[in-house]
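anyone seen this seq b4? input:
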Amino acid sequence: MFKRIHVYDVDGVLLDSNHRHNYLSNGALDFADYFARSIPAELAKDIVLPLASQYRKDCQNPEIYTVICSVRSAEQKHVNSILEKIGKPNLMLLVGETNASNMTPGHLLKLRRLSRLFNLRQFANLPRYLWEDSKKNIDTVQHLFTRTFLLTANRVRQDAD
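predicted toks r here
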């Protein structure tokens, strides 16, 4: 029986995919370019980050329900890359759109998917923890979690108790 839920973002938390990142003039990630550069040869260059060790231990722990929640798309190439590099969680919520011209912001996609998950009876009252590298994402979903951890420059900073 699960006693808590651990939710991890992928990029910037478990994997370093900066080699595929270009930014728009307003500082936002260019998602059209990001998805265009998400070909298997480029995904193979993603680097496993130190927190992946904790994630793998969580995946092995029968008391922890481990979730990946990322704006990566659910295309098989992303699923394969995650499984090969860091292992299989209990649940993978890949919330990104494959059509960059029709994108809902990632923080809203994460909010919708996580809200649905946490409304399930078996998860409604469990403590929930989130590791994320986007302050905007944390600000949007923080009310759903017992504790959140903001990763900046591959360092964890506790955001909320």
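The first helix runs from residue 31 to 36. The two ends are 24 Å apart (CA to CA). kinda curious what u guys think
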